[in-house]
TrEMBL record:
Descriptive protein name: MarR family transcriptional regulator
Species of the source: Pendulispora rubella
Domain HTH marR-type positions: 25-159
Taxonomic classification: Bacteria, Pseudomonadati, Myxococcota, Myxococcia, Myxococcales
InterPro entries: HTH_MarR-typ, MarR/SlyA-like, WH-like_DNA-bd_sf, WH_DNA-bd_sf
Pfam families for this protein: MarR_2
Signal peptide positions (record): none
Length: 171
């Protein structure tokens, strides 16, 4: 018999309560939600070690992915999944810490671009290394076929929820 996880127990309990209306088909989504919550808690713990909040980590990581390019606050917002109202204070805090700087946008007199500083690059490189190591450790428990099948299935779900990417911060 296979090992049971928390979601197996939840599905069994709901199936008992909702006789004739089994929810076993949503177990995949319940696992995604639970895994996401666990990984978010792990990220918060990691961020605390680097004196960051998870949104700040996400913003620095988005800037690091395109380094040495800069991003507008809107582009940065898209890369972090934060609300647009949270972006200005987030950039303010990162700038106060010396991790980013705002630059005038040469293409828009009213606009700004956000640049990763050397201190920001050093910090996010260290934090990312720890995060990637942990995620790699988890994925290493799966076979190559499992990784490919899981990634393909999850991509389909993401496309249903978000739609295809129109453009990326990598352009």
């Amino acid at each position: 018999m296979r090992e049971r996880d928390y979601i197996d127990a939840v599905v069994a309990e709901w199936d008992e309560q909702r006789v004739g209306k089994p929810i076993g088909g949503v177990a995949l989504m319940l696992r995604i939600i639970r895994i996401g919550g666990i990984l978010e808690r792990e990220l918060a713990t990691l961020c605390a070690r680097y004196n960051l909040k998870p949104g700040q980590f996400q913003a620095l990581a988005a800037l690091r992915r395109v380094y040495p390019r800069t991003l507008t606050p809107s582009e940065l917002n898209h890369g972090t999944l934060l609300t647009s109202g949270a972006m200005t204070p987030l950039i303010d805090r990162l700038e106060e810490k010396g991790l980013v700087r705002r630059l005038a946008d040469p293409d828009d007199r009213r606009g700004v671009r956000v640049e990763l500083t050397r201190a920001g690059q050093k910090l996010i490189d260290e934090a990312l290394e720890a995060r990637i190591e942990r995620l790699t450790e988890l994925v290493a428990q799966l076979g190559e076929g499992e990784v490919v099948k899981s990634s393909t299935a999850l991509r389909k779900i993401m496309l249903l929820l978000e739609g295809p990417m129109e453009s990326s911060t990598q352009s």
